[in-house]
Structures are given as structure tokens and as C-alpha cells.
Amino acid sequence: MRYNLMLAWHGLKRFPRSTILAVLTVAMGLAATMTTLALLHQLTADPLPGRSGHLYLAWVDTVRAKSGQSTSLNGVAINANHRIKLDDAKGLLHDHRAHWQAPMASTSVEMTGSGPNPRSKHDYVMATTSEVIPLFGIALRSGRGWTPGEDEQRARVVVIDSELAQSIYGTVDVLGRELKIGKGVFRIIGVSAVFAPQPHFYDLSAFAFSGTRRDRAFVPLSALLDAGGELSGNDGCDEDAPAKKTTLFGTDVAHCATLSYWVDLPSKAQVDEFRSYLQHYVEEQKSLAGFGKPARSDLIGVGAWLSRQNVVPDNARLNAWLAGSFLLLCMANVAGLLAARFLRRGAEIGIRRALGAPRGAIFQQHVFEAALICLVGGLLALPLTLFGLWTLRLQDSGFTDLARLDPAMFGALFLLALGVGVLTGWLPAWRASRVEPGLQVKSA
């Protein structure tokens, strides 16, 4: 094997022009494919590895409105984001049938620090309840999360991430300091690491993908509402509600479905039990009678939810298929170049065969040569791929800022290059190994 590998390496240097052409062709095909695959890999990644498998979005439809008539504030039909009303969230929290559970909504607010020269930042906060920290595994760098008792007391406390602390206060040592959120003043009790799952699975109504837009703070839902905070967007409002309060960016939380409700269910038995509980809960809502709506509930896992919402853009998948097709075209051209290279060595191959070299050794030598060409092409494809990802990040498509080459895709690039070399060189190497030694030696 070592001897055949040495012959393959010498073979690269014997025909430099065709070697360079083959390397460039492979590099372009690999770079185009890896650029699109790296982006698609980021878009389809598990948002919370180790946790997503037992996280579920719980939904009950208790909006008192005729089926199919729910509209948004501007009259345009809304998307079904599986949000529930505040009273339902309180009822599910009271029954507490899941291991961890929390209602939540991302909302954009103005946040202002305390001190003689306060700095402000307009960013997203997550309005939720105390169990969100263990539910999503949000890492705390210092301090603590709030307790269920503080939820009930409507305590104005907040957990902020380290980037927000640095931006407003110039330091992450901010425990005990005050932060004005909306019209209320909250006390900082914890500093978390940056929490940025991609995609933003738990509230796709706010945003799906982003490298910069994320929830910077976590506040008790009741306390934020007391402070005048508004939850934007809804999945429908009660038709019989007396004078629903609506603004341009906010809706009436008492009569509109504004909250996502996520639960942690570690076992299948718990999933089945909770699904039955949700259906029983909605069937008990007698106030829905007369609106012609069936009792509807749902419990859906993270992966199924992302698939149902078509989170991964179609053009990202299409680009990956087109790049793969381009790579196949490059492989076909390289296979033709290799066939021509190998057949030019007919006399040499015939002499080796006449001296006793088996066909397997001939085949191995030429497959090695094809693999080496494609590995060199992989080395050249690396900077081309990084350049392609950089150009993608320059585009403002809502998700292209995720176009980066992580260690897994770095390794995949060279595995793909090796696979392309073996597949591309297999047929030319097989053809070279079938050369008849007698005819070649006679003609030589």
C-alpha cells in the first residue's frame, strides 16, 4: 500500500497541467457544495442539544371565536403559532402536570440602567415564569433565578445576560442593581450566559433565525404586565370580549392568545398522559359552546414543530441541491481527465503487470492518485468555502448571518473530498487495471 501511495504521489507530478486543472475543478465543486451545506447545517441544527428531545409545545384552543375567523390587528389572517391565553397558562401552571413548564413570549422593550449616567438599550426580553431556567437549561454566571413565590408576589426581579450587562453597565458585576424595563424598575438578581438557540424555536412569531437578535433578559410575566409591558401578536381574540384593549404593537392578554407554553416531558408515558390532560382541559371549557368550534389541543415536539412551521427556507435547500448537482458535473469532468491520464500510461501498466503486479495493486495505485488530487482540491476549497460563507453573511436575508464553518463541517469538507476522490477515480482506475500486459509490452 505504501509503495502504491508513493507511485500515486509521483503520478501527480508527472502531468502537472492536468493535475492543476483537476484540482481546480474539484475545489470549485467542493467549495460551492460546502458553502451551501454549512449554511443548511446551521439552519437545521438542534437548537438545544440534549434537551430538545423531551421539550414539547402545549396548546389548547379556548379562543371564543368562530372557527377560521380569527384575524390579526390589521385584518390580515394570522399564522397558527399555537399560542394560548393568559388564563389558560395560569390554569396549566396551577395543575402542573409536567416536569418543568413555563408560558413565555418575546417582546421588544426599552431598558435603562441605573446610575448618574444611565445607558439605554432597546432589545428583546422574555416574559415568562420561574421554571424557564431549568426548562431550557439557561446557564447562570452569577446570582439566581426567581422562585414560584416571587411569581405569585409579582416581584419585579430580572435575570439579564452578560452582553446586556456589559452594554448598559460596562461590567457583568451587576447583581442588586436596578434596571428600568418599560415603565417599571426591576432588581437584577441573576446574570446568565448568552442564550441564543438557533432557530428561536420557542417563539417563532418574534423571529426565526438571528445571530444578534435574541432575548437579553428574562422577567416574570406578571411583573412585566404590571409595569405596562405589552405582548405583541396573537393567535386570535374572544369575539365576546368587552372592548378589547389593542394597540399598534400590543394586544389584550386577557382575551387574546399571546403566550407559547413549553413543557418538559422526559418519558413517552408522560407525553401520552399530558396529551390526554390537554384534551380533557379544553373539553371542560363550557364557554366555548355556541361558537361552532371543536375541542382542539395539541402537544408537539421541537423537531416536528420546526418542520410544521417550515423554518428552514426553501431556497437554502434548493441551493444545496444545485450546488450538489454542480459538484456531480465537476466529478464527471475530473473522471474524464483521470481516464485520459491513466490510459496514457498503458505501456507502464503493462510492464508492471508483466512483472507480476496484480490488478488490485494497479487499481489501488490509481484510486490513491485520484484521492490525492481531490484532497489537494479540498485544501484549496477551504479558503474558497470561507470566502463563500463571508459573502453570504454580507446578505441580509434574516438567516445568512449563521453562515459559518463549524468543526463538524470542517471535517466534513475533507471527508467529502476523500469520498469524491474514490468515487471519481473508481471507474478510470478499474479501466487502467484491465490493461492487457502482453499487448502493451509488445507495442512498447
Automatic annotation (TrEMBL):
Signal peptide: none
Subcellular location: Cell membrane
Family matches, as InterPro entries: ABC3_permease_C (IPR003838), MacB_PCD (IPR025857), Macrolide_Exporter_MacB (IPR050250)
Membrane topology, as annotated: Multi-pass membrane protein
Keywords, alphabetical: Cell membrane, Membrane, Transmembrane, Transmembrane helix
Domain of life: Bacteria
Primary localization: membrane
Chain ranges of the MacB-like periplasmic core domain: 19-278
Ranges annotated as spanning the membrane: 320-343, 367-390, 410-430
Domain ABC3 transporter permease C-terminal: 323-437
Protein name: ABC transporter permease
Organism: Dyella kyungheensis
